[in-house]
Design brief:
Elements lengths: L2 E2 H8 L3 H10 L10 E2 L1 H12 L1 H10 L5 H18 L3 H10 L4 H12 L14 E3 L3 E2 H8 L3 H10 L9 E2 L1 H11 L2 E3 L4 H17 L3 E3 L3 E6 L5 H12 L7 H6 L1 E6 L2 E7 L7 H10 L2 E7 L6 H13 L3 E6 L6 H13 L12 E4 L8 H15 L2 E3 L5 E10 L3 E10 L2 E2 L3 E4 L2 E9 L8 E2 L5 E6 L8 E5 L1 H9 L19 E7 L2 H14 L7 E8 L4 H9 L3 E5 L5 H10 L3 E4 L2 H14 L5 E17 L3 E14 L3 E6 L2 E13 L2 E2 L2 E3 L3 E6 L10 E9 L2
Parallel strand pairs: 3-6, 8-10, 8-11, 11-12, 12-13, 23-24, 23-25, 25-26
Antiparallel strand pairs: 1-2, 4-5, 7-14, 9-10, 15-16, 15-22, 16-21, 17-20, 18-19, 18-22, 19-21, 27-28, 27-34, 28-32, 28-33, 29-30, 29-34, 30-31, 30-33
Helix pairs in contact: 5-10, 14-15, 19-22, 20-21
Length: 695
Amino acid sequence: MVVRVYEFSKKVGISNKEILKALNDNGFNVASHMAVLSQEAVDFLNSKYLKKPEEKKEIKSEPVQDMQQVQTQKKQIAQTVEKVEPKPEVKEVKKEVVSEKIQPKLAKEVLIEQPKKVEPILPKIKEQITLKPMTVAEFATEIGKPVNEVILDLLKQKIMAPINQVLSEKVINQLAHFYGIKAIQPTVVQKQEAAVSVEKTQAIKGEGYVARPPVVVVIGHVDHGKTTLLDYIRKTRVASKEKGGITQHLGAYEASTPKGNIVFLDTPGHEAFSLIRMRGIKVADIAILVVAADDGIMPQTLEAINLAKNSGIPIIVAINKIDKATTNQIEAVKRGLAQHDLTPEEWGGQTITVPISAKLGKGIDNLLDLLVLQSELMDLTANINVAAKGYILESKLEKGIGPVATVICQNGKLKVGDYFVAGNTSGRVSILIDSYGKRINETMPSIPVLVAGFTELPHIGQLFEVVNIQDYKKFKATGAAPTTQAGMRQQVKESAINIFVKTDNFSSQEALIESINKLNKKLPKELSIISSGIGAINESDVMLAKDTNSIIYSLHVRIEPNAANLAQKLEVTIKSFDIIYKLLEDLELLSESKKEIKMVSKKIGEASVLKVFDIKNIGVIAGAIVKTGKFTRDGRVIIFRGKYKVGEGKITSLQREKRAAKEVNAGFECAFMVDGFTDWQVDDRVDCYVEVPQT
């Protein structure tokens, strides 16, 4: 059931202003009294306002000074319950032997001392919990309590923490003590093993430096087999078969080979995603250029070659689809590569070429071996004794988590709880998810990881840097305002088609906006992007589209049920697509359909004035004969006297034989009146014009 702020206000008899303040003070971002409350917000308000009298009563009757006293009182209450509550068998016997005078007294004692309502406050769900930083939601799940109850208990301890706030070990220990749960230190076996591994590598690479896996970007023309290649590697070489968020949505894969791990970055081949390809190459160590043997060098192939050359990274060419190509076609690809300074090794050049079939898996083992060999020659290392620093590859809004980003660090270890800055936004790492979709506490350099904890949606390509808490506070104190490209707004243009675009992530948004701007140069009717956003289409989007008379176009996003109902009610058009070029094609058709029709004046007839009639209460009427063409009732005339133009105007009345007529053809007499012209003379020449579409 949908509950809005004002409805809850009316229900509990508290002002909207007070409820909005309480929600925003406790981590719920609610803008107005018309906002729909989430279930978590409703639960919070119920616990705050509906149970408030009981909480006050408990505080008056049972003042608590510290956590130790709370636990002592709980144990005393529990012992009292055990003593007072009789067993069923004993109770039946007492009913027979206890006198009527004693029974009311016993009932009264039980009624007063029975503390069953106190038991749910401190349930002993688990005997112990490991001390480590975790979010409020993770702690609630760990101990088996509702997250709203944990938040309220934190508020009682004067700790304000929303659902995704990372709690320190000190707070976790305090909460464990509050709930009567034993807090234990985490095991250090894995850390010791990692330390041994690091020490071995440091002996070779130097203090603080460790070997890191190569980051390989896969580039090439659309439909040349990049995704098929990565899918084959993922299925055969990725340790986990789970559908991790990074693997499915963010194009980052960590593959395992007998000689070491390799990190792959996928890039789209469509021309709209040139900026994404550029960023992928920027953070990579090696590039795999995929060229289809049956298609050869194509426009995006050339673009990828130039980008890789400009970045200075080695290029290994995978000649794909050899299962359906001839030897001549493969040789033609090599000739094309040589023409662009990528001469194959077998031709005396320095470019490694590997014939493969991504569909059948042929040649892929050889390709992986060559990648590992190339990385060994490059001697790739990273310093883990410095603050983590890297790049943001992708960003989006994740339901229940908020802004998240895929990050690859070039140096340093990234850990849960780290403070960071990234461009014009900042935050504290609350969640780390690896390539296999599993939560981890820290990550090494070159490993792609999904990071949660951003205060705002970051821009892709921004530098991501871990900082100490003092620098973090200083950054926030400077008032560095986050950029608003993720939700940009423009003014409504009367002469354009107003559209509102929503995408699943920042890259898609950027590519779509860039493509629409390019498309505008050749469209008959301009497309004006009134607003753009990331995430599901909600009621606010529909309202904005209605107010600006816009059409909502979405790419890879869903429509919230309430938004769909509201769109139908307000007659707002929502068009959803999964492929970017299909969306662009629809925009082209929309522009063509809204194209303004240019009208031109066309002469359709000529007449000569025979007689002029000045009729009282009617006006001056010209009697004429149509010499050529025709005169129409909706026509416009120009009057000439000799060689000179003496007037013009629109025909307001046209008659033939004293009857109203729609048109009069050549050879027939007619009478007409013209708006704004009465100075008629015999033999005036009258030309009739109408507006027609320009051909």
